[in-house]
Specification:
Elements lengths: L3 H7 L5 H15 L3 E6 L2 E6 L2 E8 L6 E5 L19 E4 L8 H15 L1
Antiparallel strand pairs: 1-2, 2-3, 3-4, 4-5
């Protein structure tokens, strides 16, 4: 039987599923101190036990995104704050090439906040 976190990824439709699975792997390989956890009904990624980001699908745009917990501390024009006080999100269009350099740059800034 699949864990809830694995069920979340498995139930997604393509191309969202493939995009989320890529992001999952990319985040986990970013730093040895990043671990995956199932919290609040969604996949969270923790840096040394502290929640730093999560993956989800935007209800309005139907696109996967990386939610950055301390996003307010990161400056990047593609990060959206919407109505969040602390968090920002990076929408990823699953029908286009994944912007690896942009994601890596934002995630590196995120990890630096926890070091």
């Amino acid at each position: 039987m699949l864990r809830p976190i694995d069920q979340y990824f498995a139930k997604q439709d393509e191309p969202v599923k493939g995009c989320l699975q890529f992001l999952r792997t990319h985040i986990l390989q970013l730093d040895e101190n990043i671990s995956e956890a199932w919290k609040y009904g969604m996949p969270f990624y923790c840096y040394r036990g502290e929640m730093c980001c999560y993956l989800w699908v935007h209800k309005k745009y139907h696109q996967p995104y990386i939610g950055i917990v301390e996003g307010a501390s990161i400056r990047h024009p593609d990060l959206l704050q919407e109505k969040r006080a602390r968090m920002k999100i990076l929408l990823i269009d699953p029908t286009r090439d994944i912007p690896i350099k942009k994601i890596r740059m934002i995630l590196k800034q995120m990890v630096d906040l926890y070091k």
